[in-house]
Amino acid sequence: MGVSLDDDLVASLLATWRDLHQHPELAFQEARTAGIVAERLRAIGLEDVREGVAETGVTATLRGGGPGPTLLLRAEMDALPISEDTGLPYASRNDGVMHACGHDAHTAILLAVAEALARDRGELPGTVRFAFQPAEEIGAGAARMVEAGVMNDPPVAGVLALHMHAHIPTGVIGIPPRAAAASAAEIEIEIRGRGGHSAFPNELVDPVLTSAHVITALDALVAREVSPLRRAVLTIATVQAEGAFNIVPDTARLTGTIRAEDLELHERLAVRAEEITKGIASAFRCEAELTHRPFCPPVMNHPDMVAIARAAAAEVAGADRVVDAPPVMAADDLAFLTERAPGCYVFVGIAPTDGRPQVPHHNRRFAVDESSVQLGARALLVAARRFLERG
Hints:
The protein is α/β, with parallel strands linked by helices. The protein contains 9 helices and 16 strands. The longest helix is centred in the C-terminal third of the chain and has 21 residues, at 263-283.
């Protein structure tokens, strides 16, 4: 199998990654990044390079020398509203904005893979569509790219993407056998009582006390109604009640999130959360309303695509460096692509193995090492070729 990620292309990959890291851009503001991507894609001779897809996204097509399936490769471009504190020589130059999740590496990797595949296009069967997506961090880019037709003409038969993973050791590639990322929804709870003077609690219907009991009960929902062999999260993150030390308010509002490894479990938790909230509110003579706003389904890996990705990962990293990874309970809007075609999300480890502390995603000290960037590029390149040559 011809795999061409030579020294010059590796040098270009790393230079691009560092440049993108220095110039992070927030969701739907990725103008500079998109411009670099489009320019590079045109320079390597890709067809139908389109800018402004889903506002700031870029797509392009590589047609091989023979008939075959269409593969979609996706990378995200957006950064986060975080001030970087890594001390790196290529740290962010944009105040208050940082690539704290690895999207700069993903974009640079996909550009390198596009160039490597373009060099061998005459030998490749099928078609590769490249999708450089905006606004993954706010869960808004992928669905809009689907609406813009990224999965059509010709229809996409498979989807591959990768993500740097702060909980997997450097040099290791993790591939979830089924669920890769969780479904996600926002929940908002309004608890209505009857406020008054805090010195006369017997005259009140207290929404603050009620909300405390609701929070405790919801916290027990996953622990007591979900099998310990399945993964789910229900977190209440904010509590608002506009009273004072001597004023109990009429209303308390809670917000939080429900996340689960599959939609059936997610929907069951949403139903039970509403039942519990209303039941406890009634017991305390309050009224309650729970609003459930789903914004992302789970990313589900397909067995056929997992097999391709595992074989590719073993080829570039060694079979002993490929592991089954559990799903992350964060959401990823890659789900809107893998809903429409079999896909696989590959995790590339970046956790230090030299005793340095592990730094989580979305942290001001988050950093990706260059060995992981190179490993990810090689794994994605080999997986793409294996998919196309499988026919």
